[in-house]
């Protein structure tokens, strides 16, 4: 019989000694010692050495704990046995402080090595407190708003037991037919980079081990937003210059901000699926950029290497993904079931497996899970933080900042408090679910204040009629809407797309208003009553008739739980809209892509049809609404630009440009001051404009402030034909204004000499300072 007398056994792993029963094996001693060490003492290399191959592979496995609409539903006895055997490293579609505490307990107390699990979810624009969809938040041109939203989302998600969010999505998207444009920051690499880094900092905070932060999962590394024809999952044909300068720039900004993980893109770039692209992931992301975090596949993307036609079987797919440095396989169980066979066929994969395990264990250590695996599982904290009053207030303020006034003829807005009877028309005005957008995490429709509810609470005389919706061609409700309008003093019409028109696998071939909404608009316009359109949805829409005929148009996107109050505050002037478009609105579907930073042509577009130029014969040469466009209820005047110097050196040079801005209108308001650059003569053709900085400033009537942008020489580099970042000598044009098509001032300076740049210029934040001079 084995004695229970305790003796000390020293294992020589650099972790001290622990007490074990006499007769315990050295293997058991090592296992228990690993379980006993604190987060700061954990020796990852020693832990990897103690792991069996099956346990190592288990760390690379992420499984479903449920479905997005049935969280935790798969966590039955068989699944818990997998955890006990060390066959799982992470779960998604799980939530709840109490149930996840029990799941974590099984991992750390009943498995051989006691390695904690990672719990994850797509917390894209809020957990329970749902904020505007990311495209709308980008319209705020306010990185601090994006950071604050992520901080609150992390606070709520971590209280529910989660460690990891699959956000931010930073894919640059220039084709609004792509449904997932709603999840990102639009068409521009610089604006996208600022929103990317802000959200990473918001999710992760200054201390990833803090119990109220979560690990950011920046996605989808590659060129997912460049999917051909805007069809989700389709391949992208993107040259290396565009790839590096545009599509990868926000990912580089996220890396600089410290993102602890990335998710790979589903699609292929130039025929190579990203999840198996070693040149992109291992050579560029890891070796060139020096990033060493956790790299996760997207949903079943490792398995989909077979459908892409680059792997003959699952074992080959596992080998391709591991060679590309994909650390974790999301839900496909390709690593779980087929990586062993791949290793037996190619033993060189063993070292790559160990590297992947180390990276996964490192993020678990950095999250503090070895130190206290239960710190995310406080049910009282979970109850206290969800939908906290300060969270709702932040959601309302960010929604207000995300609204974009597209048109406002004759001062139609703001409405007077004595506006008389208002006919509120449109199914979207009463659609709470749609305001949650896609990826609503744990948001509930009952949390939403709709436009109808808010307007009826604010104004004493409102009559509502649905008229028509975005899902049906049924026109039977239009007559009722017309009667309501005829008996009212003015019309507020909510049209656009409901939440399910945009998001993953929600690409559209047409950007025109769906359903019978345009017929509804025409019928209401015919009444002759003042007509304000509130345009809702998750993408730019082609609305030339509305842009021409409506008296005012307010882009309201999908604004989250405080959508209604934010819109109503703006309609009545309590909030002066200051948002700007993060993506151009086309005149028709056939005009896309119509991004502002296109390359020049040998025959630049000319409105004169007698000239052969790069244009469509049946459309004007401009977008309907340009990138950066957005009106307010006041006016802003720009003074002359001042340069700090007429020339700078290519190597380590910098230049400052200062512009005075004055609110010359009657009310306080925000202006987003934007600075663009152009390199007019270079060894490769350069875009006609590129955003290089912005500042959202608030000004009282008559107030004047000076905005100074300081740019480094690296920000004028481009990816050269030699395959490096090159800064060339010559003239640079700087343009400052209120939108890409509303440039108020221009200035030129000279770059002297040649130099090599460092990273994608759009990933580099321009230093901005604002000084006030009073009225």
UniProtKB/TrEMBL annotation:
Keywords: Carbohydrate metabolism, Glycosidase, Hydrolase, Signal. GO terms for molecular function: beta-glucosidase activity. Gene3D superfamilies: Glycoside hydrolase family 3 C-terminal domain, Glycoside hydrolase, family 3, N-terminal domain, Immunoglobulins. PANTHER family: BETA-GLUCOSIDASE. PROSITE patterns: GLYCOSYL_HYDROL_F3. Residues 671-740 form the Fibronectin type III-like domain. Residues 1-26 form the signal peptide. It comes from Parapontixanthobacter aurantiacus. Belongs to the glycosyl hydrolase 3 family. GO terms for biological process: carbohydrate metabolic process. The keyword Nucleotide-binding does not apply. This is Beta-D-glucoside glucohydrolase. The keyword Hydrolase applies.
């Amino acid at each position: 019989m084995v004695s229970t007398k305790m003796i000390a056994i020293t294992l020589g792993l650099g972790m001290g000694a622990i007490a074990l029963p006499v007769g315990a094996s050295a293997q058991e001693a090592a296992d228990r010692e690993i379980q006993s060490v604190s987060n700061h003492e954990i020796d990852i290399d020693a832990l990897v050495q103690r792991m069996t191959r099956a346990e190592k592979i288990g760390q690379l496995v992420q499984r479903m704990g449920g479905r997005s609409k049935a969280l935790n539903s798969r966590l039955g006895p068989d699944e818990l046995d997998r955890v006990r055997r060390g066959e799982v490293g992470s779960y998604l579609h799980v939530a709840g402080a109490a149930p996840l505490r029990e799941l974590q307990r099984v991992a750390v107390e009943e498995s051989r090595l006691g390695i904690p699990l990672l719990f994850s979810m797509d917390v894209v624009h809020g957990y329970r407190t749902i904020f505007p969809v990311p495209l709308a938040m980008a319209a705020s041109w306010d990185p601090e708003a994006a950071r604050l939203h992520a901080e609150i989302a992390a606070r709520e998600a971590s209280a529910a037991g989660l460690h990891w969010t699959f956000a931010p999505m930073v894919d640059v998207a220039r084709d609004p037919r792509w449904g997932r444009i709603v999840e990102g920051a639009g068409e521009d690499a610089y604006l996208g980079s600022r929103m990317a880094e802000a959200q990473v900092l918001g999710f992760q905070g200054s201390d990833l081990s803090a119990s109220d932060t979560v690990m950011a999962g920046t996605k989808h590394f590659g060129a997912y937003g460049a999917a051909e024809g805007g069809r989700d999952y389709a391949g992208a044909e993107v040259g290396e210059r565009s790839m590096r300068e545009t599509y990868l720039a926000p990912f580089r900004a996220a890396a600089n901000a410290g993102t602890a993980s990335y998710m790979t893109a589903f699609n292929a770039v130039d025929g190579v699926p990203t999840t198996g692209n070693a040149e992109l992931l291992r050579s560029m992301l890891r070796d060139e950029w020096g990033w060493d975090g956790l790299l996760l596949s997207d949903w079943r993307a490792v398995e989909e290497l077979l459908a892409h036609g680059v792997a003959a079987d699952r074992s080959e797919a596992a080998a391709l993904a591991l060679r590309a440095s994909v650390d974790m396989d999301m839900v496909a169980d390709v690593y779980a079931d087929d990586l062993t066979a791949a290793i037996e066929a190619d033993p060189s994969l063993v070292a790559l497996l160990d590297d992947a395990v180390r990276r996964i264990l490192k993020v678990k250590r950095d999250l503090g899970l070895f130190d206290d695996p239960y710190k995310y599982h406080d049910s009282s904290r979970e109850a206290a933080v969800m939908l906290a009053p300060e969270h709702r207030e932040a959601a309302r303020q960010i929604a207000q900042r995300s609204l974009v006034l597209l048109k406002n003829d004759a001062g139609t807005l703001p409405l007077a408090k004595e506006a008389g009877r208002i006919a509120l028309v449109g199914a979207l005005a009463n659609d709470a679910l749609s305001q949650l957008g896609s990826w609503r995490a744990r948001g509930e429709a009952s949390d939403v204040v709709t436009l109808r509810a808010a307007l009826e609470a604010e104004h004493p005389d409102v009559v509502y009629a649905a008229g028509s919706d975005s899902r049906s061609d049924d026109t039977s409700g239009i007559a009722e809407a017309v009667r309501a309008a005829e008996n009212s003093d003015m019309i507020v019409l909510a049209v656009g797309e409901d939440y399910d028109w945009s998001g993953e696998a929600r690409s559209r071939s047409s950007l025109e208003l769906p359903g019978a909404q345009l017929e509804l608009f025409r019928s209401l316009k015919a009444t002759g009553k003042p007509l304000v359109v509130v345009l809702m949805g998750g993408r730019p829409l082609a609305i030339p008739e509305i842009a021409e005929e409506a008296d005012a148009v307010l882009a309201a996107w999908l604004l989250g739980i405080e959508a209604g109050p934010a819109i109503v505050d703006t309609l009545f002037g309590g909030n002066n809209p200051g948002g700007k478009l993060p993506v151009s609105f086309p005149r028709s579907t056939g005009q896309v892509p119509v991004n502002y930073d296109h390359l020049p042509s040998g025959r630049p577009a000319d409105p004169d049809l007698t000239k052969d130029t790069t244009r469509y014969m049946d459309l004007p040469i401009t977008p309907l609404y340009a990138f950066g466009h957005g009106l307010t209820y006041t006016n802003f005047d720009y003074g002359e630009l001042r340069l700090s110097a007429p020339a700078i050196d290519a190597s380590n040079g910098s230049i400052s440009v200062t512009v005075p801005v004055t609110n010359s209108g009657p009310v306080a308001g925000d202006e987003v001051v934007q600075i663009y650059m152009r390199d007019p003569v270079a060894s490769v053709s350069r875009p006609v404009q590129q955003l290089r900085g912005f500042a959202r400033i608030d000004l009282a009537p008559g107030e004047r402030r000076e905005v100074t942008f300081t740019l480094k020489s690296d920000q004028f580099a481009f990816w050269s034909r030699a395959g490096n970042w090159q800064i060339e000598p010559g003239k640079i044009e700087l343009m400052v204004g209120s939108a890409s098509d509303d440039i108020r001032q221009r200035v030129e300076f000279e770059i002297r000499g040649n130099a090599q740049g460092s990273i994608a210029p759009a990933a580099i934040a321009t230093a901005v300072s604002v000084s006030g001079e009073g009225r």
